[in-house]
Fold each of these.
Amino acid sequence: EWNWNSYQTLDQINTWLNSLESKYVGTVTRIIGGQSYEKRNIYGVRVSFKPGNRAVFLEGGIHAREWISPATVTYILNELLTSTNPKIRSVAESRDWYIFPIFNPDGYEYTFKKDRMWRKTRKPNLACFGADLNRNWNYHWMEGGSSYNPCSDTFAGRSAFSEIEAKSLSQFITSISSQLDAYISFHSYSQLLLIPFGHQGLEKPPNNDELHRIGRVAVAKLFERYGTNYTVGNIPDVIYVASGGSMDWVAGLHKVKMAYTFELRDEGRYGFVLPPDQIVPTGQETLDALIVMIEELNALQ
Ligand code: 0X9
Ligand code: ZN
C-alpha cells in the first residue's frame, strides 16, 4: 500500500510514478532517464504546470541504503502536485520539475532483498560488486576521496562513466541541461547542506557566496519546523573530499547556477536505518527548505 509511513520498495515507487501520468494528465510525464546494469529502467517524472518555465532537477537514491532519500523525494513530488499551501503552489508552478527518486535501482532492490547496508551499484568487478555511483561522474574524476579498489565502498569505477547508470543518466541530463537552473541531490545521513565542489583543490562555484547565503536561509527555514539543525558548507569543509559526484558534474560541466546536496536526517543515532516515523517530518522540513531555495532562485533572475 502506497504511503509515507513506511519505506516503499522499488516496484511500489515505480508503480506510483507511473500512476501519476494518468492522474495528472498534461502535467506529469513519466520519463525513462537511464538504465541499470541489471537492465532496470531508471524512472522519473517531468512535472510542468505551464509552458515556458525553466527547470529544477531533484535526484534521489544514488546510494542504495539511504532510504530516506527516495522517501523524501517522493514526499516532495507529492506535495508539489497536491499541496494547497499558496507558497508551495506558487513555487511548484514557477518551475518545470525533473524528479528521479531512485538513480540506483539495482542497489536499492538489493538493500530490500539481501543487504540493508549496500551502497553501490551491482556490476561485478573482479572479486567484488558495484561502484559508488557518486564517484563515477566525469568531472575531476578520481581527484580525491575515491578508491581504485573494486571491493571498496567508494570504488569510483574503472573509468569515468564506466557505470551505465551514471553514463545513461548523464546523457539524459545533458539533453535537458539548457533548461536547468537547479540540481539538488538527496543523501543521508549527517544533516548537512553541501555546496560544490568535492574534489581536491580549491575550486568553488562562481556564485559561492550566493549559494552559502541561500543555504543559510534554507537551513534556518528547515530548523523552524522541528528544530532540526543543519550545517551549510562546501563539501571538503563540512564532510570530506569526494570527487566524481553527480552534483559536481552538473555544476562544473553544465554550469547550472544552483547546485546543492542534502545529507538528510539524522546525525547518527539511527544513521541509514532511520525509523519510518521520521519520513513525514523529514519530508516536511526538507520541503520547507526547498521552497525558500527556489523562491531565492526565482528572485535572482
Ligand atoms: O560520500 C558521498 O558521496 C556523500 N556522502 S554519503 O554519506 N551520503 O555517501 C557526500 C557527497 C558529496 N558530494 C559530491 N562530491 N558531489
Ligand atoms: Zn550518499
Amino acid sequence: MSAYHFKTKSAEETMSFAEKLGSILQSGDVLTLAGDLGAGKTTFTKGLAKGLGITRTVNSPTFTIIKEYKGRLPLYHMDVYRLEDSDEDLGFEEYFSGDGVCVVEWAVFIEEHLPEERLELVISHKGDDEREIQITPIGKRYEERVKEIM
Ligand code: ADP
Ligand code: MG
C-alpha cells in the first residue's frame, strides 16, 4: 500500500484534481482528509462534490458536523473536529456502510468508527498557495480508484 503524491499551486488546481477523483467514485466509498487548518480539506471537498455532479455550494460542516448533498451519488461531508474530546457516535457506521460517498475531515478523531478500507488523503502546506496531496489507498477498491486518476 504505497502512497501517491500530487502537487498543486492553487485552490483551483486542488479542486480540479478532486473533481477528477469525484467523477470516478463509487457507491460506498469512504475518504479521510487530514491536514492543518487551512490546508485545503474543505476546498478539496468542493471539487470532489463537483465531480459527483453536486451543484449546491459546499461549505464547511464544522458546526453541523455532517452535511448531506445530492448528486450522482449522495455525498456525506463530515468535519468531526468538534468531536476531539468526545466519543459521541452520530451513527457513523451507517453512513460508512451506506450507498453514498463519505468524506471525513479530521477523521483521526473518530478513528474507532472508521472502516478498515478507505482512501486516506493528507494535505500539506508547501508555500503560499502550494499544497501537496498525499494519497494512500487502503484496500483493493481504493487502489483501483487511485490507478484510474494518477
Ligand atoms: P481546511 O478545510 O483544511 O481547514 P479550507 O479548504 O477551508 O481548509 O481552506 C483552504 C484555504 O487555502 C482556502 O482559502 C483556499 O482558497 C486556500 N488555498 C490556497 N492555495 C490552495 C491550494 N493549492 N489548495 C487548496 N487550497 C488552497
Ligand atoms: Mg475544513
